[in-house]
Specification:
10 helices, single chain, Nucleotidyltransferase, domain 5, five-stranded mixed β-sheet, 4 domains
Length: 300
């Protein structure tokens, strides 16, 4: 009899200790199930159900309830799942749905701290690597990463830049692109748009509004026509600045095209002058190691 009482006391003390380690507000651990690759904790709420919209509490627990299993941070290398009873309430403020839980967002199957943990790893690793490391689907990883980014954007102060930059990046192999809109002076990314067409970029400027667009004084970009068209339409006060790399690229192609045309038009005895002179024409004069002149088709 005494051994049974001691075992019960030891189990209760163990659950109390586990409740403190778990650290969830207004929750106690009632039971634990340890399996080979996972740990399941049965958690019970100690407070009264409350409305997540207005905060009103219900002293009498509603009859409509269900058991839900959510994932929490792992324990000793095992995936940890929490089983908790959630009540469905109909509040006088008009809200109809499940009760509010501080550490669990509505419709989620993972805890808030698990969401933050995944988002922290996504900042340093690829989504595939994070899914393999935690044993969850890549789609869940991508969703939690996107939600984490959106939360950070919502917490940032509004940025009203005078100079913006528009550039494209390759998303996957082949012609699949994304467009990055950034604030140069603030060193902040304003938006990452899927695609690089006018229809892809226009919603960003529409959403910012007319006043925001009117404050843009300079927009730097490459020579992609879609970028220029959108900025000209929505940011009427902005001066368009092409980056020197793409300008040099276009000048290089134009000079090379002209050299080929002149070589074809030249007489047979003069074609040698244009042969092999591409880099001579494109190189900066100060970069020549020795002075060379071309005269009558011969090198001196």
């Amino acid at each position: 009899m005494f051994s049974t009482i001691e075992n019960n006391l030891g189990a209760e003390m163990g659950l109390e200790l586990l409740t403190q380690v778990l650290g969830l507000p207004d929750c106690v651990v009632k039971d634990i199930l340890i399996r080979q690759k996972e740990v399941i904790l049965k958690v019970e709420s100690t407070g009264f159900p409350y409305c997540p919209k207005c905060g009103q509490r219900y002293l009498d627990a509603p009859k409509d309830r269900r058991m839900q299993r959510v994932e929490d941070l792992s324990i000793s290398g095992r995936r940890c799942f929490l089983e908790i009873v959630k009540y469905r309430i109909e509040c006088s403020c008009g809200y109809k749905g499940t009760e509010g839980i501080e550490w669990l967002e509505r419709y989620e199957r993972v805890t808030v701290r698990f969401q933050k943990w995944i988002y922290a790893f996504c900042k340093r690793m690829t989504g595939i690597d994070v899914s393999i490391l935690f044993g969850i689907s890549k789609h869940l990883v991508y969703r939690l990463d996107k939600e984490g980014i959106q939360k950070e954007l919502d917490q940032q102060k509004p940025i009203r830049p005078k100079r913006i930059g528009i550039d494209e990046i390759s998303r996957k192999k082949g012609h699949r692109y994304a467009t990055i809109v950034s604030a140069r002076d603030e060193e902040k990314i304003l938006e990452v748009v899927k695609g690089r067409k006018r229809a892809d970029l226009a919603p960003f400027f529409k959403g910012k509004g007319k006043k925001w667009c009117e404050k843009i004084e300079v927009a730097s970009m490459d020579a992609w026509r879609a970028f220029r068209t959108v900025v000209t339409k929505y940011c009427a006060n902005a001066s368009i600045c092409y980056d020197h790399f793409h300008l040099a690229q276009h000048f290089s192609k134009a000079i090379d095209k002209l050299r080929v045309q002149e070589k074809r038009r030249a007489a047979k005895k003069d074609k040698e002058v244009y042969h092999g002179t591409r880099w001579v024409l494109l190189r900066n004069p100060e970069n020549f190691k020795s002075v060379m002149t071309i005269s009558c088709g011969e090198w001196y």
